[in-house]
Amino acid sequence: MKLRTLSAATHLKGVRVLIRVDWNVPIEGSYVGEKGLKLERTFGTIRDLERRGAVVVVMTHLGRPKRRDPKISTERLAQAARRMSGVPFRFCGEAIDTKEGLAKADALIRAAKPGTVFLLENVRFLKGEETNAAPVAKALASLVDIFINDAFASSHRSHASVVGVAKLLPSYAGPELVDEVSALTHLLEKPKHPYVAVVGGAKLSTKLGVIAALLKVADRVLIGGAMAHPFYLAKRLSIGKSYVEKDGVPLARKLLKDPKLALPTDAVVAPKLDPKKVRVAFIDDIKASEVIGDIGTETMMTWSAWLKKAKTIAWNGPVGVAEIPTFSHGSLVLARTIASRSKGECYGVVGGGDTLPIVARSGMAEWMDHISTGGGAMLEFISNNGDLPGLRVLQAKVPATRKPKKTSKKKTKRE
Known about the structure:
By secondary structure, this protein is of the alpha/beta class. It has 14 helices and 15 strands. It has a 6-stranded parallel sheet, with helices on both faces. The longest helix is centred in the N-terminal third of the chain and has 15 residues. It is elongated. The chain starts with 15 loop residues before the first strand and ends in a 23-residue tail after the last helix.
């Protein structure tokens, strides 16, 4: 997939550049490991724009607010980004969906010196952001001269800050967005075989599209986590008191016909997920009082053997209740096995918000070929053969370059 990118030779001094990032991370605590990964990956682009003399305007969403909420204001993110990157971020908290707020933000940005970096308030506070309302896109576009999308994790959404503004300005893909697309394209265009995909998580319905897409190209698709439970019920096996998405059972029944699909043969179970009362049981031997917490040892060995022979691996979603250490072993085994195969004969890609903490805990993150920070976007990229709204708009013809507006000064006659 060919995306437009901004040339390194482009003159940017005094040019106002709007860059969409995905810093949708918990704002409590420290930003280390996987928590700070989304921020750290975009700092290089922001520093480059700063050094080239651009006036940089950064925007991100945070959470899913129904109204303006100071608890998820991006002001605290600006402080964290300043500490982590050394870039002197300035917070611009104006409500640009109002005339007064837009005027204040516009005056602040226009008066800024080259190399100034702003962070706008949470774009989800803007009425019409998620519906790609024209007034929101126009307000954002009016603040700047060009737009860069460096937020792959948000590119599957047709939002004003992703798609709307890109249609109004000269728009380009940022380096991190390009890297994500390049890495994930390896999973779609002539991947090496054997190709093994692992899909975990809770709900089958949310990942049905990606499973169907993977079954067309992969040699094996391994299903773990609570997502496997509808398949057991479809096979008339007991899952005790384990969580199950009941609407997923008819979906699972259709997918069971595909011989490429593989389910865990055993599981780590316990009453109410009590870590002190665990046992390993075959799937047809789960008691009515027990809950499935992880894949079992036989499954770990079988899946590891398949992964060790693979030349392409894609993994999205933990295969157990990984936030409880006792039930995280299966996911950790997968992470270490995939890392041991990556950066060699095998190409290994992992992704998803719940998967990143597992990779970090495994201590093997540096050995993965690619770690995608876009869980939902990664799934839709695979499901839709690389076609996402935020990418589609960056493949169109570049709009005519808008020249930076300068403050007019009246000339006075010499005496």
